[in-house]
Amino acid sequence: MQELIQAVQNSQTFLSGLSEAALAIIFFVLFGLVFATVAAVCALVFVYLERKISAHMQDRLGPMEVNTGIPLLKNIGHGWAQTLADAFKLLLKEDIVPNAADRRLHLIAPFILFCAVIAAFSVMPFGEKLVVSDMNIGVFFVLAITSFSVIGVILAGWASNNKWSLLGGMRSAAQIVSYEIPSGLVVLVIVMQVGSLRFNDIVMAQAGGILHWHIFQFFPLNLIAFIISFLATLAEANRAPFDLPEAESELTAGFATEYSGFKWAIFYLSEYANMFLIGIFLSALFLGGWTSPFGSLFGGFFDKPGWQPVWIILKAVAIIFLQMWLRWTLPRLRVDQLMYTSWKVLTPFAFVTIFGVGLWMLF
Amino acid sequence: MMAVGLNHFLVLSALLFVLGLLAVLTKKNAVTVLMGIELILNAANINFIAFSRYADTDLDGQLFALFVIITAAAGAAVALAIVLNIYKQMRSVNLDEADTLAG
Amino acid sequence: MSYFDLTFYVFAIGAVVSAGMMVFSRNLIYCAVGLLFALASIAGIYVLLGADFLAATQLLVYVGGILALLLFGIMLSVKFTGVELRTGTLQMLPGLIIVAGLFLLLLRMIYRAEWAVQTPGDMLPTTTTIGKRIMTDLLIPFEIASILLLIALIGAAYMARRERS
Amino acid sequence: MIVDYVIWIVLLPLISFAIQIFFGKRLPRQGDWLPTSVMFIDLLLSLIVAGKVFSAYDPEFRITRSFEWVVLGTTTIKFGILIDNLTAVMLFIVTLVSSLVHLFSIGYMHGDPRYSRYFAYLSLFSFSMLGLISVDNFLGIYMFWELVGVSSYLLIGFWFEKHSASNAAKKAFLVNRVGDVGMFIGILLIFAITHTFNFSEVFGKIAAGELSGALLTTAGILIFCGAVGKSAQFPLHVWLPDAMEGPTPVSALIHAATMVAAGVYLVGRTFVLYSEHALLVIAGIGTITAFIAATIAVVQMDIKKVLAYSTISQLGYMIAALGVGGYNAGLFHLMTHAFFKALLFLGAGSVIHAMHHEQDMRQMGGLRHKLPVTFATFLIATMAISGVPGLAGFFSKDAILAASLEKAMETGMLYHYTIFAILIFTAGLTAFYMFRALFLTFYGTPRNKEKFDHAHESPGTMTIPLVALAVFTVIGGYGKWFEELVRKPNLQMFAESGAVQDATHAATEAAAHGAHTIAMVLSIAFAFGGIAVAMLYYYWNKYSAEAVSKKFAGIYNFLWNKWYFDELYQATAVRGTLLLSKAMGWFDLNVIDGLVNNTARLTTLISFGSGTTDNRIVDGLVNWVARIIGWFGATLREIQTGRVQAYILMALGAFILLYVIQLAMV
């Protein structure tokens, strides 16, 4: 960020006159917008993917109708523009706010959630250089920022001023908080092996082909760690088997019940962004991030910087597919089962893996 | 305004400390008082870290701040539990009503 | 107006304004939200002071933990037990006077005292040094802190449990 | 030897008194025989003693025996017996009269409810009288003096249920006391100077000149006061007539012979003590008493009153005699008077006994046939007292008159001549009133027929003493023995420088003889004059007494009322003391009680004041302090509001304050 500002100030464009601070503001805004749009676009894509995959899983076609007449895109078919249409719909839909609700909170809640998720992307490693801010505490930062989402969920639940949404919010908050612990612990395992919190260090540690990926190191332990991490992050995103708060008959959409229109879209968007975040996060930690699986096989061709973002995104999509897969196959967990898995299953196993890897590394 | 130096941070921490104190002093609701206390602790932390930065003490300030955060967390948990119990006892959380120890 | 100053002022003003909101607002939730943004800005201030690890801890512990706890406390007590949302203030005038006096005294102290200050070095990543220091010099306090947390955990749980039977 | 007898003489009556007083009632015949027999034994012993003393026939005869009675640090008081011719005579007289009275009382007091006690009192009296005349020092005399007073009180007030008797007893006792006090002061005066009570030692000291001049005279006069009191002399004579309330034998014993004589004996015993001036006073008093008593006796109608006043008059004679230096004459008259006055009283007693206790001569008359023995003895006694020559009375009275004339011629002072004149005139009066009494009772027509018929001669026990006394009245006067033995003591006798015979004795002998014949002639003349007048008025009834009394009513009333002495004393002494006591009472009530009450009121006032101040100030202060502390407590309590935030606020406020102060200080 600092170099960019220096570079701009040095380039005699009309911008160099501005003070460093002004430039900093401009860049902040610029990056924010970029990520917002990227996230939005990815979310749309994933929504579409989800609907198609879930449909095909359930042996149905999914959205086919909504295509566009635009010359190039016309013949793609398969309702690719469905999510666009949804988006338009949501944007145009009337934004209802329950009268006794707290208007301002009602407005802020979704954005807190959305920001929490988007902020996490600033640290994600899309390539060796393709990192917005290459923080030394990258992984820890992600954990910290994701905890923001808890506040967002609680405020959302509260702001809609209806007991069930509040309960739903409370439940999902409790769920997020309790699954934070196993995901945090598991991250420790990887950090222990790498010895640094910087994403790039972690990814580079896995360079050299598929066998160097963390998932395969310390054979069973890291794999367990990956599974725990995958489940925990899934629960934090309130998805699939763990999306109990929305599923209850009375809770309907959980904390988002009272939301409609654009704010609901934000929720929806942040959920999918969260899925994408998890994808990249896990791939970076366990699946070797932007390193090519082939390592030096094809003469290191695939290891070129150009390919790095492709690999990471591919791995992320694979994880997302896995999540969607789980969503449409496994039944929901009851609340006590939910809490049980978190405290009585994931956390102990996380401790086991930590100790195992710890001991293993000593010898 | 001049370059941001140590004094700026100290002023900021003093201001936050004062606001936290004000909250503690004037808020009727116990939970808000707890928030005030958290704010005061944060103000203290700013001081610690500012000094650890401007007076090279091998990050002692930061470590101290870390421990403050830990204890604050423990404190908040217990405090909230106490507040909850007070509520059970007195059906209200307003501090000015909790004056049974009056002289 | 360097980039550094700007960010400082942004965060400082953010913190002070949100703290003010927390103090002067009548609505409990607004207090909580005020505290939220105050803590977030303070985390930013930490980053400015080169304490990146602590900023993250601050975010994780304060915002994710304590604030969530406070919110829970407020919401449960307000929604289900009828504690009125609006909280009044006590002895505001004297409080203000005393606090202002204190603030002046602190300012006087800050500008009067000659702090043993060196020019700050560049910002190094602090995590490793913190990690080293904790595991060497401050091992005992670290262990005690862990026990403290355990005790707090058990205590709070015990106190807040709903009486069976 | 003789001393033992005397001691027994004195102690026997005491013993009989002791027995009688305690066991009298239970003794046979109520024990009247015990004291009488004791008295006769005493008479026998005194005869023996007299025989021994007179056989020696020595005017200087003196035996003394004394023992230490009380040791007071340095001074020792000796107590003893003195026997000389005078004591022997006195012993004889007292025992004789006392035994005769005891005998007479047996009859007279027969049937009295307190018969035994009467005899007890008589023996007590005898004991004290015998003790008085045998003791050898002033203190002893004073003790027996008091005892005699007491016994006379008891005997006078014997019939104490009679109001007049008890009054008379009290009067007698008090008047005697007045005299006794004077005497006691005298004794003390002497003791103060000579530091001894013994007669001989005192007289020796006087001879040595330690006690002399005015002091000697005052001592003498003071001692004489005792005699005045006891012998009923001029100022203190009022008690004797009233003392007649007692039984007649008592009067006979005490008020005729013995007790009244005590005063004369005292003067005689301590004759050396009196200086010239003292003698003058004594003589004066004696004469006055004699004259007054005689005049009052003339108008008395009660037979016992007449005899009482005659006794007073005769005592006056004795004192006057001693006063003019007729020592021998005075004492001789004492002896003779004892005999015929006792006789007269016993005679009156038997008359009264016969007339069933009728004492008023106006109820009597013509008793000479009824009471022949009593009449005969009474006649002899009357002739003796009037000074009819040949009887005892004549010799002693004549001696007195001669002595007074002698003194008059010796000093040639008008004072002494007047004394002689008065004495002569009184002698006449004596004769007159005695024969008046004689004629009123025994001659003329009986005035109370009924009593007259009952009258009868007294029994043997009563007539014997009358006859015995009559005998002594007749023979008592003869013989020079008295004159030689009882010599007038003078200082030289006691001076240590050996006894110098009084050369002056012969010189006075011649002068005396001349005076003697003149006095004798005059006394006989006056005596028979008196008798003649009495016969005129009462025997031949030529003149009526009543007429004279009416003509000279003023003098008559004056005399009848006993010169208004009683009234005088009543007015002065009695009322004076009453007033004094009232004044004292008033003083005590108002001044002292007032004082006490005021102090009481003062203290209450003070306590009230201190009480209120204590309440108001002290309590006030305490309460105030308590209130203040209470107030502090209350205000401080306000601070404890119980609200934590308030506490924090205060703490911070304080902190700022301190900080600012600290700044200000620096």
List keywords for this structure.
heterotetramer; B: 103 residues; mainly alpha; Helix Hairpins; 75% helix; elongated; D: 666 residues; two-stranded antiparallel ribbon; 26 helices; 3% strand
Total beta strand runs of chain D:
2
The total beta strand count of chain B reads 0
- Radius of gyration of chain D over alpha carbons? 39 Å
What is the straight-line distance between the termini of chain D?
A: 130 Å
- The spatial strand order of the largest sheet of chain D comes to 1-2
User: How many DSSP H or I helices of chain B?
Assistant: 3
The helix/strand order of chain B is HHH
In CATH, the architecture of chain B is Orthogonal Bundle
Low-confidence runs of at least 5 consecutive residues of chain B:
none
Proportion of beta-strand residues of chain D: under 5%
User: How would you state the average pLDDT of chain B, rounded?
Assistant: 85
Beta-strand residue fraction of chain B: under 5%
Task: Give the overall shape of chain B.
Answer: elongated
Main structural class of chain D: mainly alpha
Descriptive account of the structure:
Chain A has 363 residues and is mostly helical. Chain A has one domain. Chain A contains 12 helices and no strands. In chain A, α2 crosses α11 and α5 (138-159) runs antiparallel to α6. Chain B is an all-alpha fold and 103 residues long. The model of chain B has no long low-confidence stretch (mean pLDDT 85). By secondary structure, chain C is mostly helical. Helix content of chain C is 76%, strand content 0%. Chain C is built from 6 helices and no strands. In chain C, α1 runs antiparallel to α2 and α2 (28-48) runs antiparallel to α3 (52-81). The longest helix of chain C is centred in the middle third of the chain and has 30 residues, at 52-81. Chain C is globular and about 55 Å long. The mean pLDDT of chain C is 84. Chain D has 666 residues and is mainly α. Chain D has a two-stranded antiparallel ribbon with strand order 1-2. In chain D, a hairpin with a 2-residue loop joins β1 (62-72) and β2 (75-84). In chain D, α12 (276-299) runs parallel beside α17 (414-442). The N and C termini of chain D lie far apart (130 Å). Chain B binds chain D through residues 21, 24-26, 33, 95-96, 98-103, and chain D through 636-637, 639-645, 648-649, 652.
